[in-house]
């Protein structure tokens, strides 16, 4: 019998049955290590399954590597999209995993991550080892190695540039890690992928990854197909991004004679350590849901970066924006028997729950969007960007930098009211939120969600609707649920928030996804009937109304 970790979604026997049946629904949710060969696989690996005595099951690829296993060359478990299983939980281990996934180790090391979680490095290491079977450093190394392999296989970057882009501290560390993870040197991986190991670097950078000077208009560019689980509803995701586009931060392409507007590319400002990057998504190259094969799907994205060192942070932001770590099969199974959601999920397979690219921007934009239409909200948000963007936005990319909360906090309510042309009460709420963010209110993916909710609700002018929207898209809580939302209540046919809460109890821990399905269906029907699908708003009698 294998060593078990608490994070495994199934018992040993159930894991073995899933692996024996090559059940792809569990790919990425647990991994199979084979002691007789020293390799680890995804559950759906086509290779002959070993005897139970030779099997060990792990909750992460990093745990497999830490136990001495190498990735299978046949099923490529390292190529799997990420998992949102850790997003369902709010405990310390889950927060640590989300932080590492978002690059906390790259930014501040284990010391910085432990400090943000208010624990010692020793305690952090112990709890991750106990539950996941890997240390923070091992999790970060596996994350870098998997990203590096994708860059080797999908780009013409030199191996030196790949090491730099994937966040390795040296070429030697890069080589050692790749051998530990895959049993091959980076040059061997490049040869297997049909790449020239000495291929030239990305546009606008040399082999040392130097950032171009401010007078240069050439930026390092990286084009990738970011993996996600099929089905993926590209049209609905693009429509969501277009509906919430902020002037100065998003560009929504127009259609042409050969390309309908629903498939035109979109470009988005991406905030990375080096400044403001641009992500362009080629929607026309994503097949329609009905044409997608089971398994994984690549979403074509081109990144224009201040520096190659910004590659991984930019990728993670895009993955969050498009919800590429979602598991449609898991959601379909969870909602299949529900009389309300079952038909909606069947009619809209692959619908995603897009996340915020920047938590501060989203929270401030949400306050401005209270009680107004989407069009009016975009106008107000554009004014906010135009007036309060951080220095360092790049005109050559066509984008402003992120909104600077400290500058907003330094204004008076009267000056904000005049500049943004909003009500005095809304200006006071905006300034109060900006001040809280400046003082350290954490509403990012690794935050303590209950503490963040409590601190948000304590701010004047912010009520349950705003808090739950911020929890859903900034905190990344898939169970966030704005029960007081007007459109949500209409879709459910209930009169109040308590009734909406009761109706959704069976949908835990996916109430955020349930909300997305209910919104999408209601707005589609409203649009088809000629109604104007205004933004989803809080009811008039809540604290959300400034």
Automatic annotation (TrEMBL):
It catalyses: Hydrolysis of alkylated DNA, releasing 3-methyladenine, 3-methylguanine, 7-methylguanine and 7-methyladenine. Residues 192-217 are annotated as: Disordered. GO terms for cellular component: cytoplasm; protein-DNA complex. It comes from the Bacteria. PANTHER family: DNA-3-METHYLADENINE GLYCOSYLASE (PTHR43003), DNA-3-METHYLADENINE GLYCOSYLASE 2 (PTHR43003:SF13). This is DNA-3-methyladenine glycosylase II. Keywords: Activator, DNA damage, DNA repair, Glycosidase, Hydrolase, Methyltransferase, Transcription, Transcription regulation, Transferase. Residues 208-217 have a biased composition (Basic and acidic residues). It is an enzyme of class 3 (hydrolase).
């Amino acid at each position: 019998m294998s060593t078990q970790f608490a994070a495994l979604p199934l018992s040993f026997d159930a894991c073995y049955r899933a692996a024996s049946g090559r059940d792809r629904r569990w790919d990425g949710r647990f991994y199979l290590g084979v002691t007789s060969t020293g390799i680890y696989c995804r559950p759906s690996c086509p290779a002959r399954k070993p005897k139970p005595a030779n099997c060990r099951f792990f909750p992460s690829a990093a745990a497999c590597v830490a136990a001495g296993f190498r990735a299978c060359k046949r099923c490529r478990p390292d190529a799997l999209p990420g998992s949102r299983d850790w997003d369902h939980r709010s405990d310390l281990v889950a927060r640590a995993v989300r932080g590492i996934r978002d690059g906390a180790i790259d930014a501040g090391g284990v010391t910085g991550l432990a400090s943000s979680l208010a624990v010692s490095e020793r305690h952090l290491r112990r709890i991750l080892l106990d539950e996941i079977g890997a240390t923070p450093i091992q999790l970060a190394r596996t994350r870098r190695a998997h990203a590096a392999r994708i860059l080797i296989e999908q780009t013409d970057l030199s191996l030196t540039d790949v090491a730099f882009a994937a966040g390795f501290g040296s070429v030697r560390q890069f080589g050692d890690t790749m051998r530990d993870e895959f049993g091959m040197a980076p040059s061997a991986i490049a040869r297997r992928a049909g790449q020239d190991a000495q291929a030239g670097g990305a546009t606008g950078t040399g082999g040392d990854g130097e950032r171009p000077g401010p007078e240069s208009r050439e930026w390092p560019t990286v084009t990738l197909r970011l993996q996600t689980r099929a089905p993926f509803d590209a049209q609905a995701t693009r429509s969501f991004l277009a509906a919430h586009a902020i002037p100065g931060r998003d560009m929504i392409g127009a259609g042409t004679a050969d390309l309908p507007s629903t498939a035109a590319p979109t470009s988005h400002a991406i905030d990375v350590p080096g400044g403001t990057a641009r992500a362009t998504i080629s929607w026309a190259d994503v097949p329609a849901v009905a044409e997608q094969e089971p398994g994984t799907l690549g979403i074509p994205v081109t990144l224009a970066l201040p520096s190659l060192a910004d590659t991984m942070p930019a990728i993670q932001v895009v993955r969050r924006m498009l919800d590429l770590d979602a598991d449609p099969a898991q959601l379909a199974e969870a909602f299949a028997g529900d009389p309300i959601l079952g038909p909606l999920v069947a009619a809209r397979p692959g619908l995603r729950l897009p996340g915020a690219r920047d938590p501060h921007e989203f929270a401030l934009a949400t306050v401005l969007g209270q009680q107004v239409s989407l069009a009016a909200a975009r106008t107000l948000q554009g004014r906010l960007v135009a007036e309060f963007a951080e220095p360092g936005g790049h005109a050559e990319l066509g984008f402003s930098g992120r909104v600077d909360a400290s500058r907003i906090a330094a204004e008076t309510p009267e000056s904000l009211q005049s500049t943004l042309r909003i009500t005095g009460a809304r200006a006071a709420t905006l300034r109060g939120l900006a001040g809280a963010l400046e003082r350290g209110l954490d509403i990012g993916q690794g935050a303590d969600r209950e503490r963040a909710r409590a601190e948000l609700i304590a701010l004047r002018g912010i009520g349950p609707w705003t808090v739950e929207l911020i929890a859903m898209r900034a905190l990344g809580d898939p169970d966030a649920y704005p029960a007081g939302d007007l459109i949500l209540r209409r879709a459910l046919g209930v009169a109040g928030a308590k009734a909406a809460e009761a109706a959704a109890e069976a949908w835990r821990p996916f109430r955020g996804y349930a909300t997305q399905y209910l919104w999408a269906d209601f707005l589609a029907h409203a649009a088809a009937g000629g109604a104007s699908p205004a933004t989803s708003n809080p009811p008039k009698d809540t604290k959300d109304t400034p």
